[in-house]
TrEMBL record:
It holds the Pfam family Tricorn_C1. This is Peptidase. GO terms for molecular function: serine-type peptidase activity. It comes from the Bacteria. SMART domains: TSPc. Transmembrane segments: none annotated. InterPro entries: ClpP/crotonase-like_dom_sf, PDZ_sf, Tail-specific_protease, Tricorn_C1. GO terms for biological process: proteolysis.
Amino acid sequence: MSDLLYSLRYRFLVLVLLAWAPLPLVGQSVPLTPAQYQQDFEYFWTTVQDNYCYFDKKQTDWPRVRQLYAAELPTVTTRAQFVRLLENALAELYDSHASLSTNRPDSRRLIPTATDVWAQFVGSTAVVFDVRRGYGAARAGLQPGMELVAINDVPVAQALQPFLGRSLKTVDAAAREVALNLALAGDHRTPRKFTALVKGKPRHFYPDQDGLQLEHIGSSTLLESRRLGTVGYIKLHNSLGDNRLIAAFDSTLTTLQGTTGLILDLRETPSGGNTTVARALMGRFITQEQVYQRHELTAEQRQFGVKRSWLELVSPRGPVYSAPLVVLVGRWTGSMPEGITIGLDAMKRATTMGTEMARLNGAIVSYRMPNSGIGFSIPTERLFTPAGLPRENFVPAEYIQPSAAPADQVLEVALQRLGGRGGKP
């Protein structure tokens, strides 16, 4: 083997830096044999075993996963059954950056791409942390700070049980939080009902009462922009995986060159993107080549005991926008936009505002099983700030707690910071 990195990254895979949006499950014209299902499962299990880079912070017993799910393989006779087995096995990692390329109608929605609420535990109490502006949970009246007591009439403690892995040595806080948010995400066909306490009394919320909007998230435009007084504002529409964004961003930035400051809103970018687009955008704000993140490939160290890490650079590109810059982030800022945020922060080129981001682990690689053709993506590279902080642990410089206020408080604070005059968010 001439180069481990080559063999890891380019055989049976395509390197991407965003979580896949699952494709609809389609019929299988020729059923696989039991031996083929076994071969695909072994390929899946071994690939994760050899390349997944976050086992050290998980309670997952991956050899136990092999035992548990291999025992179920003799009952698998259809593609749909195999997809469910793979979903359950992958869920043992409780990692929202690990996913399949396909799904069933009763599969859970992807976190954070297809969710509209984020919750976390405060002790044993499930509390709404944030709701996604413009989507069902917010329209139904769910607000940050509310205590959740039931999901589809099932008490929260019971509702999350199906999403806790069977192989876990112990159920840690991270596993409970992922399970809670999977329960809240719902599946692709069932309307959700949340019960929360409002002034001490239970109240029901129906985020899907106007239809399953989360099944049709999308925008006809790559970005939106406007002037807010003397300040420019650019919001990306989850488009960091589309190379056309480079030209659209350049054109927009040209029209905003006369502004006294710029707000770059990354709060609606949950599906990640690619480094080409990310570096293109960051390159418009710097005058010299700079480091924006550090990579670490753990597979080589695991196999040979030799650590492999490197720094990634951003180069200046085009006319530089030199006025002050504020970057807005939140729970629906996922993967590549997290990289942009830590990069602009490390280069001391922007003030970051908002809350924790999606905290998606590392950079992912996508693989495809030899018989079924089912793809799966897992984090294989750890990502850090240039100073060594894990990307998933980054917190914006100005932390703004989500609130129930109808106004966009994060945008208001950004405008105040930039001294915007004469414009309203």
